[in-house]
Amino acid sequence: MAGVALISLQACSSEPTGQVVAVVNGEEITQQELNAEIAELPAPPVGDKEAIRRQILQQIIDRRLMAQVAKEDGLDRDPMYIIRERRLKEELLVQMYGVKTADTVRVPDAASVKKYLAENPGKFSQRTAYLVDQISFDFPSDQKILKALEADKSLADVEETLKSFKIDYSKGANSMDSGNIPTPVLNQILALPAGEPFIIPMQGKVVVSVITGRQPVPTTEQQASPMAAQTMRAESIGKVLRTRLEEAKAKANISYQDGLAPLPKKTAAK
Fold this sequence. Notes:
alpha+beta; four-stranded antiparallel beta sheet; two-stranded antiparallel sheet; 10 helices; about 50% helix; about 15% strand; disordered C terminus
């Protein structure tokens, strides 16, 4: 039956004319697809434009043929393929929605940029590279561990607490750029007594740090202004996207299996 369907599809396929630049076993490749493929190259192609188009078109055809071979082997019905296809589609939609949202956010004016520079000296005029000693470990399921760390006044205290809970951890030295830290968080860190550790969750890990040194890396207002404008615009875009997400959550009907629902906000904060 599959063979009959394929023959039927091939029989009714059109010749590659107009906006159709090639037909592969009944599947059309359009001018728009070819243009998009060329536009997404890492660097603009240099040389004979027609030769480049032929080369890129052949790459699309080869990929389409291999995809058809994979389908013949039934991989498009494999559960892992279906899961990954859904994830890729969702990621693409989110990415395109981000681009669409960015088009609605204006570049800030000079006065707004100047104000932002004054309000965020740690990112620009007082930008600093902090040397830190760190301890990191996997984010624990038991919130008592994080609560116990709040009383620790040194990295040695942190080690003793983790040992008491039999938590595996790693130690090392690192650097921390104040330009990459939100100003309210940076202010909290700098307000701590010298040598007192602070905790920042990172990618499923808990990272406990102590500042051991610092190296100023200031930028002039002329250097900082375009960077500040870009940062402000990115923050505005992020704020719009977060607002849209919260609105979607408020309207959504979401149910969780027991034990997988998010922790209440107060518990999570601890």
